[in-house]
Amino acid sequence: MKARFTLAEIQQHALAIVDREGLAGLTMRSLAASLHTGPMTLYNYVKGREALEELVVDAVAARVDTPALTDDWAADTRAAAGALWRTVRAHPAAVPLVLTRRTSSATGLAPAEALASALTRSGLADADLLAAFRAVMAFVMGLAQAEVAGPLAPEGAAAAEAERIGALTEGTLPALSRLSSVSAAHAHEEFDRGLALVLAGIQQAAEARVGT
Amino acid sequence: MKARFTLAEIQQHALAIVDREGLAGLTMRSLAASLHTGPMTLYNYVKGREALEELVVDAVAARVDTPALTDDWAADTRAAAGALWRTVRAHPAAVPLVLTRRTSSATGLAPAEALASALTRSGLADADLLAAFRAVMAFVMGLAQAEVAGPLAPEGAAAAEAERIGALTEGTLPALSRLSSVSAAHAHEEFDRGLALVLAGIQQAAEARVGT
DNA sequence: ACCTGAACACCGTTCAAGT
DNA sequence: ACCTGAACACCGTTCAAGT
User: Fold this and answer.
1) Which residue is nearest to nucleotide D19 (CA to C1')?
2) CB within 8 Å: B138 and A182
3) pTM assigned to the model
4) Do B53 and B101 form a contact (C-beta atoms < 8 A)?
């Protein structure tokens, strides 16, 4: 019998379920139902649950539209990081998978390649180039992590944001609870400001190298 | 009947199982067996599976020994970030939980408080202070993420590290595969170098403020 | 070769009964 | 109050039988 589905179809259905019902809503059985088959059919396309979850990560990565290159490596770095950030953020329920499942497909690695490519044109030497890549990538993933499970993240959608930390710590964690109220006011610019700080350090290293 | 266990006991057993057998090894049933009880007994101490996982995260956070404060905020920031990094890294199997489960206990938030406290003494204004906190915290968590599931992480313990990316991408992801070989050579200093880049950007912002 | 129902070995948790 | 066995509703996956 011919193959009834394509891998891309399965990917799309899986990501759609995660987006719609959350991570717990994705099971072999629910995905099979979404495709109008029995659970066992899936095993003709995917090795098992774990491979399915990697497929979801690939599906998210595939939605990142890598921006066109310019002659400004710093701008390209910002663009690559921003594109990844926006896409990951658009699929909050998939973030736990994005953070913990590794990809080795070309599409899954494409956003990292775009970032690496931009940074390579900074002229940094190997060790610093690697550190810069690590720092920017970690910033993007770490910020996504913070939004899902970080200490300043609002608990429920409706809960007042600053309340949680403020109430629970009652002055025992003063620095953190102050930041918590700042966060409520500056949520919209946290990515840009944070990335600017990281990039400032990288640019400084790149310029120091040109100077010598 | 008196309470047979303390929460701390349960925490230690749970973390020990994760460290020893991996995340999949921790189930209500396996934890109960480790404590020589039935699974139902656990529900007297913990609301359910999810609360248990948060307890594991707290247990990891509790093992971070926050370093003593000095009069150098940048050094204290490095020390706070380093202490968190080393502890998280010492429990690789727990990293997926650390990344995805939120804590609201005081012990769970203590490492973040230490970091916030150090950065507060930089003199940065609110928005930049928050951005700096975000950047450093994201760097630490993002680097832990990269080690577990990032594009340059070795697949298996025995697999040659550069092979994976190199072989699979065969020149289609040139920048990334070059970084992959650099990574093999510089693994030991990636944290320090990356953090130095991030801190350079933060210090630059702090000095610019002093100058005006 | 690709498909897929039945069955198995798990899992978290509800319920109800113990002390 | 705190404990806990039995039972239930799931889950991923093996197996074997279909085409």
Assistant:
1) A1
2) no
3) 0.93
4) yes
Which residue does chain B place closest to A200, by CA atoms?
B201
Report which residue type is found at B71: D
Q: Tell me how far apart the alpha carbons of residues B93 and A6 are, in angstroms, rounded to a whole number.
A: 34
Q: Any residues with CB less than 8 A from the CB of A129 and at least 6 apart, and which?
A: A119, A120, A122, B179, B182
Length of chain A measured in residues? 212
Which chain C positions have some atom within 7 A of a protein CB?
1-6, 10-16, 18-19
Close Cβ partners of A147 (under 8 Å, ≥ 6 residues apart): A89, A92, A95, A153
Closest Cα in chain B, distance from residue A1 (Å): 31
**Chain length of chain B:** 212
- Rounded to a whole number, what is the distance in Å from the CA of A125 to chain B's nearest CA? 10
In chain B, which residues have their Cβ closer than 8 Å to the Cβ of A200?
200-201, 204-205
Q: SS3 breakdown of chain A: % helix, strand, coil, rounded to 5?
A: 75, 0, 25
A171: left (phi over 0), alpha (psi -120 to 50) or beta: left
- DSSP annotation of A67 reads P
CA distance B1 to chain A (A): 31
- pLDDT tens digits, one per residue of B140-199: 999 999 999 999 887 654 444 445 555 556 578 899 989 988 998 888 899 999 999 999
- Measured between alpha carbons, how far is residue A88 from residues A63, A68, A98, B69, B148 in Å? 9, 19, 8, 37, 18
The reply to whether residue A106 touches residue B169, judged by beta carbons under 8 angstroms, is yes
Digit-coded pLDDT (tens) for A169-202: 657 889 998 998 899 888 889 999 999 999 999 9
